[in-house]
From TrEMBL:
This is Uncharacterized protein. InterPro entries: RmlC-like_jellyroll, RmlC_Cupin_sf.
Length: 194
């Protein structure tokens, strides 16, 4: 994972998924942001709504509109040994609006996993807390009932996580230029996209 830099105006996150990886993001949606993906190298298998499609660099930028459930992995995730794509899959992602919250999400989601010994058995709950505060809603049930189920789950788990001493964001994973947006996200005062 390569976080946004000044060269890209802190807008673009680059992810490299190595050959043979079975990693899959998991179905989710965003309520405040549109996302844009671009395949730089390899083949991306992307779910938009209920439809899976394979994208390549020739497809250009792919819009993932807010409220659309999506998921992604390497196109060859389920390939038999020896039939997978050669090389890394490289994708770039940005959100609209660009306000630093996407970068905060990635930094905290990956840093807490790296520091999993610190969180111990609470790591899954910590990960859900990061999702809750980062406009990332997991698909708990298919269809419209999923919205209610996910929001209900978050409403129950948020106070539980806080009671256990967890918080959505940590100083050690937050660059100084993102402190204000982090405080807005934690306090629920970040302006919603209209």
């Amino acid at each position: 994972m390569f976080y946004p830099t000044a060269e890209t105006g802190y807008r673009i996150t680059r992810a490299i998924v190595p050959q043979g990886s079975k990693f899959q993001v998991g179905a989710h949606w965003h309520e405040e942001y549109d996302e844009y993906m671009r395949v730089i190298q390899g083949r991306l298998k992307l779910r938009l709504g209920k439809t899976w499609k394979v994208y390549t660099p020739e497809d250009g930028e792919i819009l993932i509109a807010k409220d659309v459930i999506h998921d992604l992995c390497r196109a060859d995730k389920d390939a038999k040994p020896g039939e997978d794509d050669e090389g890394d899959m490289i994708i770039e992602e940005r959100s609209d609006p660009v306000d630093g919250s996407k970068e905060l999400f990635f930094r905290h989601a990956f840093s807490t996993v790296t520091d999993k010994a610190v969180f111990g058995w609470k790591l899954p709950l910590q990960q859900l807390l990061v999702l809750m505060y980062s406009d990332t809603y997991i698909e708990t049930l298919p269809g419209p009932a999923g919205w209610y189920a996910t929001h209900g789950l978050y409403a129950v788990l948020n106070p539980l996580a806080r009671l256990l001493g967890l918080k959505p964001f940590y100083d050690e994973y937050t660059p100084s230029r993102l402190v204000n947006i982090r405080m807005d996200m934690e306090g629920g005062t970040k302006k919603k996209k209209t």
